[in-house]
């Protein structure tokens, strides 16, 4: 055991000890200046290197705990966890996890207080611990894994008994039984993070691409216009500063009339807010229709008023120009937003992709652009959230591949998983859409990051002192807001831009889903497409080159794990469809059907469709390892019979580029492959209409068409696909 020496009581010297005895600190922090043991709050931020770390997760407020005995017990345990290494039991607690441990320990100590009237570990016995376990398990909403974590606290109080001033527990809880057994928790090693369904990730990625490649130009142009308007307003205010109040009002009304004349000449209306706020509406004098109120903020920018400095100068006040504004509304009508920046036209609708900007809509669209860039970076690199949010300005570079033939985009960041607290520098080889997203982020983040003295690409974009500095605490909320925003702008009631998930509810996006989803697709659908022109195989090459090279994030292992899970998932679909009466086609159809039918028979008398899925997965595992899903056929790979291997040497797996799905004994064709064969037939039919084809070309196309039609016929009839 290394770390603190035992102490019978908390002395004055103990009180003055730094909370972190040996943890590395970020540059600019001295150990004698960080939080002390007796401080009412512990700020562990100086020892947390992750840019994305939330302040609430690295800060402990003991003042929130009213009971003195609970508060002091928490101090003792947290101090030990942060500074004592117990080989074989616990490593020193990462400062970034302190809040989590605080909450778990607080629950136990408050239970002890309720039972005994005070936290006195000398009076805690096994029956009390049993009551605590029963109390935790009584809440059916609390999962066994959570109960396990909570039951670890009394075990820690025994393990750290020699370094706790109070002495800790004198007996081993539950006679050494692991907390998981006491909780009834059976660990499942499979990743429980849900994959984003294809029907959701595809449009989400497509719209993210459009934001970065198309809409960003409008957003940046609007920000430039707003900067110019604010500078213009400041210049007018400076110009008017020498005038008396009445003269200033006269100048402002003259400018307002000039502005209305300008709108009239362009056939535009008086600017109103894009959305109503403060419960205020504008009623049309003739139709009675309600709309958002007049955008006084924009009027003020044009005529030189700063209501933050002079609230009484508001243009809508009685001594301002309300009548002048109402007359202009009657004469000109209204226009949502009101800024001059033109809005790009959507080719598919022939209409602008959104109404004109106002200051609020602009700020919102900047956050949506940031969300779109995050999705591209997180999904198309496979980076973890902490790795994405560690990206800083200047992280993008363009280099040649090792053979000098290909230019590769590289992103520099920090890998933390399994590393030291500081993390390790890492590089990710990625593709052009990510590079474009980083370029957009460089420009988008500049204002807010510079205002806070930061170099991150992910600042909170609202540049107010009361706001958090880093996006980390808001990213999940912002991503789901982006989903809703896309539906508001581009969807309709019955056809949302981002489809709902199972159960008809909006899919809740989390940051962990992106890495798992792209890993699964790279492993199991390398031929698929995302957002039209972005190929999974391109992302696969980039990701594998990056992670197999200089990256230390372990993404390749993630892909291999998802390959195993994906093979099982796909074979389960085979099994379920077979039980429902589906037939198979292709040279391997008979072999695979026999195997599936045998497994079904082995499950008798239990109906296969309600059998234990874990048991079925075990029975299918051997066959699943041979499954490689393809576009025209699925390969149940057997190297001894694989046709593709006869055309190449040294290969250890199927060569999809050399696949002959109607000849190879490993090929199995299902109804899922029908669209690809139908597309092949349509393309051949279309090409055969070309009169300039050579006889050889025509012969090849006719043969391909004949083959495709035979396969389609076999799929439709449930027969084995014939040869060419």
Rg estimate, integer Å: 33 Å
Oligomer: single chain
Number of domains: 4
* Average pLDDT, all residues: 85
Question: Helical amount among residues, as a percent range?
Answer: 40-55%
Tally of alpha and pi helices: 21
Parts with pLDDT < 50 across at least 5 consecutive residues: 1-11, 529-537
Report the span from N to C terminus: 72 Å
How would you describe the shape?
flat
Total strand count, please? 16
What about the largest sheet? 3 strands, antiparallel
Derived structural class: mainly alpha
Strand content: 5-15%
Strand order of the largest sheet: 9-10-11
Give a description of the structure:
The model is unreliable at 1-11 and 529-537 (pLDDT under 50). It contains 21 helices and 16 strands. With 724 residues, the protein is mostly helical. Helix 3 (98-116) crosses helix 5 and helix 11 crosses helix 13 (432-451). 36% of the residues are buried.
List keywords for this structure.
mainly alpha, 3-stranded antiparallel beta sheet, 724 residues, 7% strand, disordered N terminus, flat
Compact summary:
With 724 residues, the protein is mainly alpha-helical.
Secondary structure layout:
Layout: H1 12-15, E1 41-43, E2 59-61, H2 68-83, H3 98-116, H4 126-138, H5 144-159, H6 179-183, H7 198-240, H8 245-265, E3 270-272, E4 282-283, E5 290-291, H9 296-303, H10 322-332, E6 334-336, E7 345-346, E8 351-352, H11 359-381, H12 385-388, E9 396-400, E10 407-415, E11 424-430, H13 432-451, H14 475-490, H15 512-524, E12 529-530, E13 534-535, H16 536-548, H17 555-579, H18 589-602, H19 613-624, E14 627-628, E15 634-636, E16 667-668, H20 674-688, H21 695-717
Parallel strand pairs: 3-6
Antiparallel strand pairs: 1-2, 4-5, 7-8, 9-10, 10-11, 12-13, 14-15, 15-16
Helix pairs in contact: 2-3, 3-5, 4-5, 7-9, 7-11, 7-13, 11-13, 11-14, 11-15, 15-16, 15-17, 17-18, 17-19, 20-21
């Amino acid at each position: 055991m290394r770390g603190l020496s035992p102490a019978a009581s908390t002395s004055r010297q103990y009180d003055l000890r730094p909370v972190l005895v040996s943890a590395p600190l970020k540059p600019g922090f001295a150990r004698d200046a960080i939080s002390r043991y007796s401080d009412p709050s512990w700020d562990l931020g100086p020892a947390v290197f992750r840019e994305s770390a939330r302040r609430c997760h690295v800060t402990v407020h003991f003042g929130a705990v009213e009971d003195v005995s609970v508060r002091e017990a928490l101090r003792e345990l947290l101090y030990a966890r942060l500074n004592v290494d117990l080989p074989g039991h616990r490593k020193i607690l990462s400062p970034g996890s302190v809040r989590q441990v605080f909450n778990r320990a607080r629950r136990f100590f408050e239970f002890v207080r309720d039972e005994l009237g005070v936290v006195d570990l000398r009076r805690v016995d096994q029956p009390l611990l049993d009551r605590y376990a029963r109390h935790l398990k009584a809440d059916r909403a609390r999962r066994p894994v959570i109960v396990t974590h909570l039951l670890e606290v009394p075990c820690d109080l025994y393990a750290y008994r020699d370094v706790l001033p109070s002495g800790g527990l004198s007996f081993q809880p539950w006679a050494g039984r692991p907390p998981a057994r006491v909780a009834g928790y059976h660990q499942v090693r499979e990743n429980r993070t849900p994959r984003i369904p294809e029907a959701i990730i595809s449009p989400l990625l497509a719209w993210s691409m459009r934001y970065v490649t198309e809409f960003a130009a409008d957003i940046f142009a609007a920000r430039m216009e707003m900067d110019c308007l604010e500078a213009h307003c400041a210049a007018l205010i400076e110009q008017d500063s020498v005038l008396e109040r009445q003269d200033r009002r006269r100048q402002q009304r003259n400018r307002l009339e000039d502005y209305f004349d300008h709108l009239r000449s362009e056939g535009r209306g008086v600017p109103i807010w894009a959305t109503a706020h403060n419960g205020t509406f504008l009623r049309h004098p003739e139709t009675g229709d309600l709309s958002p109120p007049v955008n006084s903020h924009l009027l003020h920018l044009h005529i030189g008023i700063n209501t933050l400095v002079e609230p009484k100068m508001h243009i809508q006040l009685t001594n301002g120009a309300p009548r002048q504004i109402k007359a202009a509304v009657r004469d000109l009508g209204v226009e949502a937003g009101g800024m001059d920046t033109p809005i790009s036209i959507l080719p598919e609708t022939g209409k602008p992709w959104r109404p004109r900007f106002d200051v609020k809509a602009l700020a919102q669209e900047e956050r949506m652009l940031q969300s779109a860039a995050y999705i591209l970076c997180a999904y198309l690199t496979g980076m973890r959230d902490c790795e994405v949010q560690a990206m800083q300005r200047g992280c993008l570079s363009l280099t040649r591949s090792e053979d000098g033939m290909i230019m590769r985009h590289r992103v520099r960041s920090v890998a933390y998983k399994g590393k030291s607290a500081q993390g390790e520098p890492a590089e990710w080889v990625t593709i052009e859409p990510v590079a474009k997203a980083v370029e957009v982020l460089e420009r988008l983040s500049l204002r807010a990051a510079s205002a806070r003295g930061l170099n991150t690409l992910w600042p909170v974009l609202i540049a107010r002192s009361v706001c958090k500095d880093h996006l980390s605490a808001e990213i999940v909320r912002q991503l789901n807001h982006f989903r809703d925003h896309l539906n508001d702008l581009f969807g309709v009631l019955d056809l949302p831009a981002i489809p709902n998930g199972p159960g008809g509810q909006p899919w809740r996006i989390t940051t962990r889903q992106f890495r798992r989803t792209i890993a699964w697709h790279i492993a199991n659908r390398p031929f698929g497409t995302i957002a039209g022109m972005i190929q999974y195989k391109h992302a696969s090459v980039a990701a594998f080159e990056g992670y197999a090279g200089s990256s230390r994030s372990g993404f390749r292992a993630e892909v291999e794990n998802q390959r195993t899970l994906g093979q099982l998932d796909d074979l389960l679909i085979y099994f379920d469809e077979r039980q429902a009466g589906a037939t198979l086609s292709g040279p391997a159809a008979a072999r695979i059907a026999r195997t599936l039918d045998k497994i079904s028979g082995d499950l008798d008398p239990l109906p296969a469709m309600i059998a234990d899925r874990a048991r079925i997965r075990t029975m299918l595992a051997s066959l699943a390892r041979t499954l490689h899903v393809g576009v025209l056929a699925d390969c149940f790979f057997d190297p001894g019979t694989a046709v593709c291997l006869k055309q190449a040497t040294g290969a250890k797996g199927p060569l999809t580029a050399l696949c002959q799905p109607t000849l190879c004994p490993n090929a199995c064709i299902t109804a899922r492959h029908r669209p690809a064969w139908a597309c092949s037939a349509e393309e051949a039919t279309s090409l055969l209409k070309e009169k300039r084809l050579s006889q050889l070309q025509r012969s090849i196309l006719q043969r391909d068409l004949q083959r495709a039609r035979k396969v389609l016929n076999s799929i439709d009839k449930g027969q084995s696909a014939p040869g060419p």
